[in-house]
């Protein structure tokens, strides 16, 4: 397994209950990664979205894709990522095609379009059982943390 | 490269930076005149790379700061 939870936590600043990556199962150099989030159903957001009818909010699928994008960035720019910069989401174009439900294994494929020191564009695909549940293009920025 | 190419490039960039086509002059500096930030800059680069099937290496991005310089960059890249 390319990356486990401890290695993921070493890259991502997010923590429970806002960490949406469980493992990274594929890494293709600095061009593509595949990450997984197992949706158990015990996540806090299901209590309200929606009572009696749990559905993973689309914005949280985008958040999960954004977190996976940070991991890809860390492979493109390891020296910068090592210094724990601030990552911020700038623009999102997303389509949601099917609901994500408790018990689903959300597979997220992130493909690099362009990554520089200061910004990144990626194409992202989220699937459950090979069915596409969401597609997105994410543009994000990277700012060095204040020393 | 002809007038159509110039117009097409101008429309592509004005769409990304949300500046009307008539306000986007050949020599307008993306950063100083048009307030393009690093996120818009990477969008321009990615859109140009995709449309014209060229690669703009990261070290060249600071050199393409206007419609004119990006135009010349594409023309040169296509020549090679």
Describe the structure.
The complex is a heterodimer of chains A (147) and B (80). With 147 residues, chain A is α+β, with helices and mostly antiparallel strands. Chain A has a single domain (5-143), classed as Thiol Ester Dehydrase, Chain A (Roll), CATH 3.10.129. Chain A has 3 helices and 6 strands; from the N terminus they run αββααββββ. Chain A has helices at 5-11, 58-76, 78-82, and strands at 23-28, 32-38, 86-96, 105-115, 119-128, 131-143. A 6-stranded antiparallel beta sheet of chain A has the order 1-2-4-5-6-3, covered by helices on one side. In chain A, strand 1 (23-28) and strand 2 form a beta hairpin. Chain B has 80 residues and is mainly α. Helix content of chain B is 54%, strand content 0%. Chain B has helices at residues 3-17, 38-52, 67-79. In chain B, helix 1 (3-17) runs antiparallel to helix 2 (38-52). The longest helix of chain B has 15 residues, at 3-17. The two termini of chain B are 14 Å apart. In chain B, 25% of the residues are buried. The model of chain B has no long low-confidence stretch (mean pLDDT 94).
Short descriptors:
heterodimer, A: 147 residues, alpha+beta, Thiol Ester Dehydrase, Chain A, 6-stranded antiparallel beta sheet, 3 helices, 6 strands, 21% helix, globular, B: 80 residues, mainly alpha
């Amino acid at each position: 397994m390319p990356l486990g939870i401890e290695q993921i936590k070493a890259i991502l600043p997010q923590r429970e209950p806002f960490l949406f990556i469980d493992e990274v199962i594929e890494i293709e150099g600095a061009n593509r990664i595949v990450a997984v989030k197992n949706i158990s159903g015990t996540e806090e957001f299901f209590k309200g979205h929606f009572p009696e009818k749990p559905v993973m909010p689309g914005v949280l699928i985008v958040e999960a894709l954004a977190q996976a994008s940070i991991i890809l960035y860390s492979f493109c720019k390891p020296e910068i990522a090592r210094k724990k910069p601030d990552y911020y989401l700038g623009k999102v174009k997303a389509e949601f095609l099917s609901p994500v439900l408790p018990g689903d294994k959300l597979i997220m494929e992130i493909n690099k379009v362009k990554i520089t020191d200061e910004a990144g564009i990626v194409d992202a695909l989220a699937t459950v059982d090979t069915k596409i549940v969401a597609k997105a293009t994410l543009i994000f920025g990277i700012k060095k943390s204040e020393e | 490269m002809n007038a159509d190419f110039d117009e097409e490039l101008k429309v592509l960039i004005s769409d990304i930076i949300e500046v009307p086509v008539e306000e986007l002059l050949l020599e307008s500096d993306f950063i100083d005149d048009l307030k393009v930030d690093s996120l818009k800059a990477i969008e321009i680069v990615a859109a140009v790379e995709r449309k014209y099937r060229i690669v703009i290496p990261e070290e060249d991005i600071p050199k393409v700061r206007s419609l004119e310089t990006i135009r010349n960059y594409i023309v040169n890249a296509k020549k090679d």
